[in-house]
Design goal:
The complex is a heterodimer. Chain A is mainly α. In chain A, about 75% of the residues lie in helices and about 0% in strands. Chain A has a two-stranded antiparallel sheet with strand order 1-2. Chain B has one domain: Orthogonal Bundle (MetI-like fold). In chain B, α3 runs antiparallel to α10 and α7 runs antiparallel to α10.
Amino acid sequence: MSGQGLTGLSPWSRRLVAAGVLAWCLITVFPLYWVVVTAFKTPPGVVGGPTYIPFVDFTPTLQPFIDLYQGIRGEFFRTFLNSTIVGLSAAAIATAIGAMAAYALVRFEFKVRLGAGLAFFLLALGGYLLFNTTFAFTRPQALLLAFPIALIVAVIANRLPLPGPILGNEDILFWFVSQRMFPPIVTAFALYLLYSEIGRLGFQLIDSFVGLTLCYVAFSLPIVVWLMRDFFEAIPIEVEEAAMVDNVPSWRIFIGIVVPMSMNGLLATFMITLAFVWNEFLFALFLTNSRWQTLPILVAGQNSQRGDEWWAISAAALVAIVPMMIMAGLLSRMMRSGLLLGAIK
Amino acid sequence: MMRNDPIKHVFIWPAVLVVLAISIFPLIYSLTTSFLSYRLIPPIPPRVVWLGNYGTLLQEPRFWNALFTTTLIALIAVGLQYAIGFGVALALNARVPGERLFRVALLLPMLLAPVAVALVARMMFNPTMGPLNQFLSQFGLVNLPFLTNGHWALGCIIAVEVWQWTPFVILMMLAGLQTLPEDVYEAAELENASAWQQFWGITFPMMLPISAAVVFIRLIESYKIMDTVFVMTGGGPGVDTETLTLFAYQEGFKKFNLGYTSALSFLFLIAITIIGVTYLALLRPHLEKRR
């Protein structure tokens, strides 16, 4: 991989290009530097106008972080824990079941009749309307009844020789990935209503660990399946075939051979998912209100509550940013080893 | 080689079930609600109005304003991201000096919480105490209305979007550039093609498929923009920077106008689908020609 495209350039234009990249780099880094520096300022150090260099322009202090830890500006410590717990568990679950699905899509053949898929959707919709309007069930009850019925009928219908096209693995993958195209507001709002109605039946999902994690797992799955499929496709099949000759069952091939061989890919996917969940705002805004609030909500709240208290805002933003900065370092190391290459092509 | 083993169902069903449950439920739910006149506050029993909500929405100037604002932000921001991102990726691929150091720094913004980034942006764009104001003061531009004037605010939001998501374009384009075959360039060298000719004759056409994918992903993601606007301007001044998601949030979560919000969500979904399909249809002839 040599320098393509720029080889014909004179040394002078090479310098110009380097200057351009350096300029973009400065634009990228300056706001980050600014937030780090501001988080260590005292109130007078902020109000007096912009200052840039610690110990020269102003005397750094740890006060903003002590305030944060003591909970003066909201329950930061607990919120940080919430974000960590929800992020880690959602990313772990999503990576696990997403990797399983991706492996199945790479190595096994699936056939879904379009007719069965349509039957599922129409039955779920019709069943919901029927149970809700005619039999006077509540909406979540109607949904919970219609869903398994539609699913079972669809699975049976899939075995019948229905007319219409047959969808294969590529189409299933497309279905997974296309879930990502959905405007999340459509789902967030409906999910909020659904969760609160289920809550009225006695099972609390709003502002709960299960509700939030479930929703994040579902929304990370498209990316996980998409990324992991490429990692699995890159694994040579000969090893698996050798194991199959020895009659090793498929699940042991997966856990014993495939997972260890794609550990890097799993790790990268896990970290990307974790970053996605950690930063997510809209679902957390709808689905939590106090106990399971996550960092982005609390950080966004600093704005309206605190006006121009920049030292506090910066410290709060920094708490949300630093874990991801560490991850960026780890990921870029993986990127350099060409690991993410396969995920993109 | 494809195997056939009943265990495949154990592998695929957990993921399918979770995605089905969390995506089909709300879809059916909001589709049916969008045909109702249904409010929580004040509580009115649901009444079927069929396409009434859609009709009201299509006559609502605020909806068209939100659609226009979102489209403007998405198109300009993605255009800039692509131009800058492709440029930087080309430079990094050509091994500019200090390229290794740049890579870590350049990856950072896309991993940070948009909410935190927007808070930092508010500080940067502060008209009296911000560093940008101090910088521009030296050119005689003092106290510019960064977030209080509609046009300026839109510009600032676009700037933040470009800042945060250009790294994604850089990452993808760089990965694409590294897969290009070298012999084509060697042949071009022999023909004495200039760097400019090499770019338009070889690099750009060969990068077209991945470019199309990157722009598509960014375009769809940009249409969902909410966090950045929510924190930076809250949609203001007035409704000058209100995006579709923010509009839906205001209607649904502040006014609890359920039927109306569901209809809005569906129009949004339809708009995104139309944009996606048009984009792919426009690009298809170019992509197939290059195969």
